[in-house]
Amino acid sequence: MAMKSWLSIHPDSHFSLANIPFGIITTADSKPPRPAIAIGLHALDLDIFTSKGGFSKLASVQHHLSVFSQPTLNAFAALGRSVHRDVRLYLQNVFVESTDYPEILKENQEMQSEALIPLGQVTTHLPLQIGHYTDFYAGRNHAYNIGVMFRGPNGALQPNYGHLPVAYHGRASSVVVSGTPIRRPCGQIVENPLAETRTPVFAPCKKLDFELELGAFVCNANTMGERVPITEAEDGIFGFVLLNDWSARDVQWWEYVPLGPFNSKNFASTVSPWVVLADALEPFKCKGLTNETELLPYLREKKEETSYNINLEVDLTSETTTTVTSTNSKNLLFSFPQMLAHHTSTGCPMQVGDLLGSGTISGEQPGSWGSMLETSKNGTVTLELGSEGRTFLEDGDTVTMRGWAGGEAGGRVGFGGCTGQIQPAKMP
């Protein structure tokens, strides 16, 4: 049975008492960015909560209270999983109907009026300062679909695919929070890929796409030259967000050989604003896709349930809103701990706040594919949106991603929305 709060929370809320996600907010009357949690239709301002003794009953955090007045969550993340767990459980206790600490908030009208803010009155920001961003390619269904499209079924997946979590280094400076407008990129494209002589032009992208991913933030730094063992990698994950890794497919087609994506991926990636802690998703762990390849020892996990049962949807809004994708995050071949262990296997130093992208998450059937490249079969099939049709994104289109785990009333653990609207290109 789901926990019941003294605060009114809709049964279908993504921000139930089972969740307690963390983010960074500002308000009209208080401009400095500071940490908060989302709870129902409210944000709890942790700076105000802390300054008025909200954490006075939690001994383990007394020497770290300054983290709740910082402009990012990096300092809080760096405290480690045990502290994250203590803080989340304490805040659940504060909000539960039978709270052990009614004087902290339930019966403290002054604290409620100052620290509990309607979500409609807050502006959210990037939750962490991201030093580095690495995008993996762990969605095997997506990788296979794209491989078939460009190389045929026999060569769809490269020989290394099952052996290691394939990835490339992305651009952290263009990771933006949900709601940020996305400018259509320009780049080198080949207007007739079938021509005998392929000559590029510099023009606005004509095949702009979304990619449905999960993102994970790192909370433990490792020293250069030292690996993160697979047995410790899970403790290196702070929490999760939805991630839209926008893609310029025509730019990508021309540039990706031999070194992979570059300008086709570096113009924007959008993340949802509330970080769902790893502990909040623990009850929803499940098996991911079966990997039939025998992994090397440094990637072998003791547990079988290393993925998450998170429902994922993508809406495309033009004149009307259409749900174009419904899938699940268990459609990944590698787990985030495996990604972290592989990333550091060379001794690469990770930093607190580094972002790992899962790669595009697609199911096996039409309607479950995590990109328009798959849905439109590279522009050859039109997706019907009411009276309109799409093969790729057009100016003015809005893409909204949603994700949640659990179906019990009052027990959903969700991410809210991850949204971006396409703006016209700017040509030089």
Strand content: 25-35%
| Helix proportion | 10-25%
Instruction: Pick out the low-confidence regions.
Output: none
- How many strands, which pairing sense, and closed or not: the largest β-sheet? 8 strands, mixed
Identify the overall geometry: globular
Structural class: alpha+beta
Q: How confident overall, as mean pLDDT?
A: 97
Total beta-strand segments: 26
Number of helices: 10
Radius of gyration: 22 Å
* Straight-line distance between termini: 59 Å
Task: Provide structural commentary.
- By secondary structure, the protein is an alpha+beta fold.
- It is built from ten helices and 26 strands.
- Strands 6, 7, 8, 13, 14, 16, 17 and 22 form an eight-stranded mixed β-sheet that branches. A five-stranded antiparallel β-sheet has the order 4-3-2-1-5. The chain has a five-stranded mixed β-sheet with strand order 9-26-25-20-21, with no helix packed on it.
- A hairpin with a 7-residue loop joins strand 25 and strand 26.
- The longest helix is centred in the N-terminal third of the chain and has 15 residues.
- The model has no long low-confidence stretch (mean pLDDT 97).
